[in-house]
Amino acid sequence: MEVAYRELTLGIAALFNDPVTGRGGLPALDRLLHLGQYALGVPGMALSELHTAGGAGRVIAATGTADWALGRPVQPEVVAAVLRPGLATYRVELGAVDDDSSDQMTSLGSRWILLHRIDLDGRTPAMLGAFMPDDSPADADQLAVMALLGATVGRLYSERAGLPVQNAGDDLADRELFIAVTSHELRTPVTVIKGYADTLRDHWSQLDDKSRREAARVIGQRSDELARLVDRLLAASTDTAVGTLSPGPFDVVEALRHAAANLPADLRRRFRLELPERLPLAYGDRATIPNVLTELATNADKYSAREETVVLTAGNDRRTVFFQVLDRGIGIAPEQVHQVFERFWQADSGDGRRYGGAGLGLYLVRKTIERQNGWVSLRPRDGGGTVAEVRLPRGDVKRDAHASGEA
Q: Which residues form the Histidine kinase domain (predicted)?
C-alpha cells in the first residue's frame, strides 16, 4: 500500500512547531492521529492510555470511524495482550474485543485492529490502534508508519506536557486531596445552615413570617445539598461509586420521565424534555438513572446562565440506547473532555474558583455507568455549550459479555 510519507513527516514537524499542539496534550494527540489516519489510508485511529498495575485502559483520542470509542474502557484482555513481551506491533481480530465494540467496528467498515505498544522508560503508558478496512495483513510501510507514530507519542509522553490525561496518582496524594476537598466543600453549606439557624434563634421575634419561611427554606435546601455531598464523598472514598447493581431490561424513556419529574425544583424549572414516545429497552440498573440524571442536570445548571434552558433527549442505534443532557453553558475545551470524569477534577481550580463542587459528580456517573457495561461522554455542543451523553447496551440484543461485568 502506498503511504503518504511526505505529508506525515511534514505534519509531525509542524505539530511540534505549532503554538497549540507543540505544547503536547490532547491537541497534539488528535493532530497526530489525523496525520496517521491519512498516511495509512485507514478509516479510523484511536489512542488508549493504560494503567498497567490494574490492567485497565481508556480511549482518550480517536479519529474517523473510531470516534465513537472516545471515553470507552479497554478490555483487560486486550491490555494484557498488549503488555505481553514480544513485537510492539501486532494484529488483533475483532473477535478479541467485546460484542458491542466488534459489531460497531464491523458496521463502520473495520475488519481488524493494528495495535502498537508505546514503551517508555520500562513502562507502557499507551497503545495506538489503526482500524484496518480489509483482511490484508499490514505491509512493511504500514508497520513503519505505526512505529513512527508510536515514537512520536512516546516523545510527547516523555515531555509530560499535558500527559498522561489520566493519572492514577499514589494513595497518599489521593487521601490528602480527599481531605482537602472534603473540608473545603463541607464548609460552605455548613456555614450557611449555621448562619440562618443562628438568625432564627437570636432574632426570631424581630423577623416577620416571610423572613422566617425564607430562612427555613434555605436551611432545607442547603441540608439537601449537604446530604447529597456526603453521599458523594462516602461513595468516592470507597472508590465503589455504587452498591450492588440489579441489571435487567428497562424502559429508559419512562425512567427518564420519572427521574426528571423528581429533580430539585430549581433544576426542574429550566429543564425541557424532548423524549420520544418509546425506545428499545435498555439493559442496566433502572434504579441508578435518577442519580445519574441529577448529576448531569446539576452540572449543566452550574455552568449555564439562569435564562438558558437545559434539554433532555434520548435515542438509540443498533447496539445501544442513549440519552443526552444539552446545555448552552460555558462549554468544555477539547483537551478537558476526558479529564472531567476523574475524581476531584475541577474545570477551574485554586482560590479563585468561580464554580463550586467537589469534583465528584461526573466521576460517580462514570463509575456507575461503566459497571453497567455502558459509557458516558462530554463534548462541545454546536453553537456553544456542552452535550453530556450516556449510553447503555440495548436490552433486546443478545449479549455474552454483559453478565461478567466486563466492558
A: 181-396
The x, y and z cell numbers of residue 68, run together, are 465513537
Distance separating alpha carbons of residues 341 and 361, to the nearest angstrom: 8
Q: Would you give the DSSP letter of residue 245?
A: -
pLDDT tens for residues 375-405? 888 888 888 888 999 999 998 865 443 333 3
- DSSP 3-state percent helix, strand, coil across the chain (nearest 5): 45, 20, 35
Other Cβ atoms less than 10 A from the Cβ of 57: the count is 23
DSSP code, position 136? P
Residue with cell 512520536: 152
Torsion of CA 94, 97, 103, 109, to 10 degrees: -40
For residue 164, say if its preceding peptide bond is cis, omega within 30 degrees of 0: yes
Q: In degrees rounded to 5, what are phi and psi of residue 282?
A: -95, 160
Say if residues 375 and 361 touch (Cβ distance below 8 Å): no
* CATH number 3.40.50.1460 is the correct assignment for the domain at 248-404: no
**Cβ neighbours of 223 (radius 10 Å):** 14
Q: What is the homologous superfamily of the domain 5-159 according to CATH?
A: GAF domain (3.30.450.40)
Total residue count of the chain as it appears in this document: 407
pLDDT of residue 39: 93
Report domain extents, the chain.
5-159, 171-238, 248-404
pLDDT at 51: 73
- The residue among 253, 393, 402 whose CA lies nearest residue 318 is 393
Cα distance between residue 47 and residue 27, in whole Å: 13
171-238 folds as Helix Hairpins (1.10.287)
396/376 Cα distance (integer angstroms) = 21
Residue type, 320: T
DSSP 204: G
Looking at residue 336, its pLDDT comes to: 59
Contact between 259 and 290 (Cβ < 8 Å): yes
Low-confidence ranges of the chain (pLDDT < 50): 168-173, 177, 240-243, 348-358, 399-407
SS3 92: strand
pLDDT attached to residue 122: 82
Q: Rounded to an integer, what distance in angstroms lies between the CA atom of residue 172 and that of residue 157?
A: 24
